[in-house]
Sequence to fold (396 residues):
Amino acid sequence: MSNFKPLNSVLVKPAGPDCNLNCTYCFYLEKSELYSDVKTHRMGSETLETLIRQVMAQSGTHITFTWQGGEPTLMGIDFYKNVIELQKKYGQGKVVGNGLQTNGMLLDEKWAAFLAEHNFLVGLSIDGPKHVHDHYRKLSNGNPTWERVHQSLSVLNKHGVAVNAMSCVTSYSSEYAEEIYNFFKSEGFEWMQFIPIVETSRNGKKYAADFSVRADDYGYFLIDLFDLWVNDFVNGEPTTHIREFESLFFTYVGMQPPECYMQPECGTYPTVEHNGDVYACDFFVEEKWKLGNIHQSNLIDLLNSQKQQRFGKMKAVLPAKCKRCSWYRHCFGGCTKDRVKDIRDSGMPRFCLSTKMLLEHADSFYKELAQKWHDKQNRNPLDSYKTYNAFGDFMK
Fold:
């Protein structure tokens, strides 16, 4: 099969949609309606072992597990100790990576020690400084969460856990690019990811909710962020990595970027719910895109099923003007989910304008950087895999 998709990573939701927060912009809490037969959703030991056994048998030499939610720490440390033991049992000498995406509310010294010992990469949901984070990330009683999350960050740093900042960009936070970036730097974050939020309003209208970031505001946010990032290199500041910007570099040197939303086709990884149900994508956990269940089917077969192929190809269903756009090869229409949240977008990529604004601003930078990368590759082809070498060379 020419378009066979290898199993390189799997996203797992062991606690399903359950969460100890009630963030205003959360889209996943409502997924509990899919599993309304039980109040609490937890992955059982049989499902966990079936999952890990399958993943190890059906993947290549390297495999990454991303434990997400809901809130995955609701499972407790013992669940993840079992994860490690099962990965060792079925690992067959493979290189295994574990990522934990968490709101940080339950993390403490024991958690941090465990995560450090087993080399977990932690994606910490923290939108920025206190006023930004607490604007939408609240408990169910409306109380703020920043103080507790910030405390968890300190504990993770104390134990030397690798931590990335995962910041949601909203109608509010889009106004504070510089403050957010400088805050993350001051807290020691070397890796940052910024996720634009657009969700449908819950008032019955199929319009984007008020907290959703507008395309032009997100564009200005990206430009401000980009300039701050580049200026740090110019001024010899400690290196920071912003996932969106570094992934764009791949598109300028003719390589496939790691981000699925920048690729021509999506659906490159399966999403596994607490009971073993498998979905096409974590943003499309809905009956329409349920692929099957690992207790009845092989994960690799579901990943390469006709339904998953249809899902992946859906990304390319765009107006002709998108495919004629000079920037198309750098975005391929962005994430499919961002076209379906507001009927006023008429199926167009919501953040098309944002992407154009950033690329028009940054194009000369990336072209010069790409030329330096190609020149170095021609001098030493063995360095071609070192995709980011040009960053440091360009800024010296």
